[in-house]
Amino acid sequence: MALTVDERLEELWEEEPGLGSVLSTVDHKSIGKHYIYTAFAFFLAGGVEALLMRTQLARPDLHLIGPEAFNELFSMHGITMIFFFVTPMLFGFGNYFVPLLIGARDMAFPRLNAFGYWIFLFAGLFMYSSFLIGRAPNDGWFNYVTLSNHQFTPALNIDYYTLGLVFLGISTTVGSINFIVTILKLRAPGMSLNRMPLFVWAILATSFSVVFALPSLTMANVMLELDRRAGFNFFNVAKGGDAILWQHLFWIFGHPDVYIIFLPAVGIVSSIVPVFSRRKIIGYLWLALATMTTAIIGFGVWVHHMFATGLPTLSMAFFSAASMLITIPSAIQIFAWLATIIAGKPVFKTPFLFVLGFLFVFVIGGVTGVMFAAVPFDQQITDSYFVVAHFHYVLFGGAVFPIFAAIYYWVPKMWGHLLHEGLGKLSFWLIFVGFNLTFFPMHILGLLGMPRRIYTYHAGLGWDGYNLAASIGSSVLALGILVVLVNFLLYGLRRGAPAGPDPWGGDSLEWATSSPPPAYNFVEIPKVQGTEPLWDQPELRDIGFRARDVEMTLAEGHDTMGTTVVDAEPESVLTMPEATYTPIVTAFGISVVFVGFLTLLLPIIVLGGVIAIGGMMAWLRPKELPE
Amino acid sequence: MSAVEADPGRTGSRTQPTGLLAGPGNVTGGKSTAWWGMVLLIFTEATFFAILLTTYWYIRFSHGPVWPPDGIEKPSLFLISIMTPILLLSSAPMHWAETGIKKGRTGRLKVGLFVTFAMGATFLIMQGFEYHDLVKEFTPRTDVYGTLFFTITGFHGLHVLIGLLMNMWIQYYAWRGRFTAERYTHVEVVAMYWHFVDAVWVFILASLYLAPHF
User: Fold this and answer.
1) Who among B3, B70, B147 is closest to A234 (CB)?
2) Which member of A18, A520, A576, B36 lies 3.0 to 4.6 Å from A13 by CB, making a disulfide possible if both were Cys?
3) For A212-263, what is each residue's pLDDT tens digit?
4) Smallest CA–CA separation between A505 and chain B, in Å?
5) Domain coordinates of chain B in residue numbers?
6) Least CB–CB distance from A556: residue in B16, B47, B144
7) Which residues pair with residue A417 across a beta bridge?
8) CATH: 3.90.226.10, 1.20.120.80, 2.70.70.10, 2.30.42.10. Which one for B34-213?
9) DSSP string, A321-369
């Protein structure tokens, strides 16, 4: 019997449902959802750590939590939020939406994509298993030597940190390489670089930053681990090593990482602003250029994290100037968004409210950021609560508000149900008020001299009221996040009104297919003619459902289209791999290797190595020739 | 297998765009996705080496005038002047193998891979002899110089080893006849990796072996 094209595609692309499919899937949409679920679980864990700290700091001289536990809490809070929540969450949205936005059927390397997810999950479990033996990392998220060397922290706390981050780095690196190749090679015909959605630009910039920045963190951690476990001398001053070297290597990664976190969030904002302003984005070219410029300048400012370490004045002057320079692309972006909103007819739905919240909070964080670029000011307030206030305004404002915007914007596409608008608005106001109540008083606390990372303080220093306000604010914030969760579980997963293909009147290709999209994304690979394909080409609205041009359905095999890097001219038909267990087996083997390095047991390392190499060989083996 | 049919009234005989052939990530035009993936892996790997060499120079310049410190001899150039040409020239048979299989010459592929393997393995064995002598004088634990020397050369040696394992692995499939003039992506990316491992050695040689003599 003859099949229609969509039935044929269904047969080719659908994976068997069930547990096996969860473990073996290579579908970018399933993997994207796995990333989002897992990252959100880490967000809740990091949130609980924050609430425990705020409870301890609510009143002076409290002793609910001792100093040792407090050190572990603030370290794990930072590690979790930066490494295990924000980046994986944004990678999750990237995984789900980059192929949809560029009109492809999957990522360039679907198995590598699955592998990256499993490594992320296993690295997170590895890091969190440290709590089970009461030895969580306790030297802060930037883990400065000499406190983190063997002499001052002999226990496993720091080994969990170094090994856990090297482990996680594998995931971030392969994920980024996958994004770059996908974006460069799998774009729909006609989607030349200057027509790419801004979210895709942002993911591209972020991924390049990861490729060049992450090795510095990984190498620093390898060096520290060699120092700690094998008696090497990288950071051992007595044998000619250098303690400041750690700070350089950490921040050569660490500052680009701020943009690795921030840029995809910016991409989300650039996607949402035009849709809810009901007009084309103003300054598309400027926004794309600002994205790339930020990523590049981000590599030249790391020393502003080290102004208080006693570096030469000349180098501080250079990095101070570079740090001020980076405000230019940020300002361009802010003004382009504001212009779009002002020139449009804004519709104040929940995703848009979170974007407005982002603009407000992020500008405050940006202003305090410029203050840090001034060396004397920085030296005065370094390591005070002013820093804590600043980076929460930048990171929570710059990344978490856009993530919530993305949840309200894209969950209807991913699960097919609209979230509840009333609960959405309630959650926004709780989060907005709670956030500012928590973190604004910290500016004042910092100026009053309260150092960061202290587990308690005496009464009568003038800090009590501000700390109490911050602690109350943190509960309001937590309540807001809980409302988002309830909204998702209740309405997003089942009770919400059906979303339909395009609930917001969007401009980009993900809205041209059903919600949730079929396994093959689009029946027909679209031919794109502009930056807002769905607004400019109404004929594309049904590419998810029926084929107009049979040649563009690629229904002969498990295929998607390869195009040229700059102009996206059709170039080749790429046959995509089927579901397989090799990525999870390889990832498991690598996990065993890391457990082996933690416990220093050679047989475990060898066993893990054999599993990982076996998995990889099965995964990458050349296919048999067709007869 | 069932026939493919579009919407009523839109039935067409072909379902592939004109001029494009289906193939497993292979070359109907442009480079394969695997080629791009390897380019990016090499970018990130090159950054690893750049970080290590930057660390070396950072420590060296902040360490004072005597380098190597603590009475350690300047690195001997004898073994290395044999090892270096062997490693660098090993790229030639690899290239010969790769261009061979692109013309469908499987014999050239097998011979070229084997010669490359032998040369790479010779380099690694000689590095073993060099280490054997050096550890009598200093180890990574001796001081920061020993740490840097053994970490950087060892990290490079590890990459040579990975290159050799990949070489062995594709030799196996070369003998099984899995590569043809149309299907050679594995050979292409392994060759690229090998050239990278060779090229990066030049920077290590210059920084660790030659620079201390000037």
Assistant:
1) B147
2) A520
3) 999 999 999 999 999 999 999 999 999 999 999 999 999 999 999 999 999 9
4) 26
5) 34-213
6) B16
7) A498
8) 1.20.120.80
9) HHHHHTHHHHHHHHHHHHHHHHHS-----HHHHHHHHHHHHHHHHHHHH
